[in-house]
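// run 5 | inverse folding | seed 20
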């Protein structure tokens, strides 16, 4: 249910106005609560657009779309213009809001052709920036700047394994297979509840992490 998402009062008021929006968010939350929160945040823009542009709530918009009073491609194109004129969004955030609105319409049985959508709904192309990994010297500086031992071990774990923040925080003592003085590498099990793919996986630990066994036990 939406109440499990712990949304803000502003969000709750907006959701109360739209039964279809509540139904969609509840459906998404069954699989992933975090995704539901993200979708909710994006769709509040869409609800605001419907109110300011057409003077109606999204439920009424869906009804008019089903009755062919509105054209879904025109709606989404107008939404692009609305976002462009009202919010200073990155190209990625812009695209995400449009795609989420499209998903919401399709959830409510508004058929959209991928070919027509690409042709008729225009939004900025996502710009991909070249990113360089942090080098070893910078990592050492960051680690040396950690005054708290637990924080230092946490940062070292992130740097040496590439784990996501929530994945690293989910590790329990019994998820660690530490093998000091053994040819077999130590590893940490990441439970599927905390992975992006929802599948259990494991990561190998470096020798530096292996030698912090006593410190890891304090986490």
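// decoded
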């Amino acid at each position: 249910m939406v109440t499990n998402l712990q949304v803000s009062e502003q969000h709750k008021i907006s959701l109360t106005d739209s039964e279809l929006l509540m139904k969609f968010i509840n459906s998404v939350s069954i699989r992933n609560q975090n995704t539901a929160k993200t979708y909710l945040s994006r769709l509040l823009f869409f609800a605001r657009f419907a109110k300011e542009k057409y003077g109606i709530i999204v439920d009424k918009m869906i009804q008019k779309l089903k009755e062919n009073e509105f054209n879904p491609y025109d709606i989404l194109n107008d939404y692009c213009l609305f976002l462009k004129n009202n919010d200073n969004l990155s190209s990625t955030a812009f695209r995400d809001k449009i795609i989420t609105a499209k998903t919401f319409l399709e959830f409510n049985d508004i058929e959209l052709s991928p070919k027509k959508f690409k042709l008729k709904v225009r939004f900025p192309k996502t710009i991909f920036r070249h990113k360089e990994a942090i080098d070893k010297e910078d990592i050492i500086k960051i680690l040396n700047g950690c005054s708290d031992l637990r924080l230092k071990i946490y940062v070292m774990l992130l740097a040496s394994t590439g784990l996501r923040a929530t994945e690293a925080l989910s590790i329990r003592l019994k998820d660690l297979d530490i093998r000091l003085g053994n040819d077999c590498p130590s590893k940490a099990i990441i439970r599927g509840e905390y992975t992006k793919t929802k599948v259990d996986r494991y990561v190998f630990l470096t020798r530096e992490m292996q030698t912090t066994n006593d410190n890891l036990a304090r986490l």
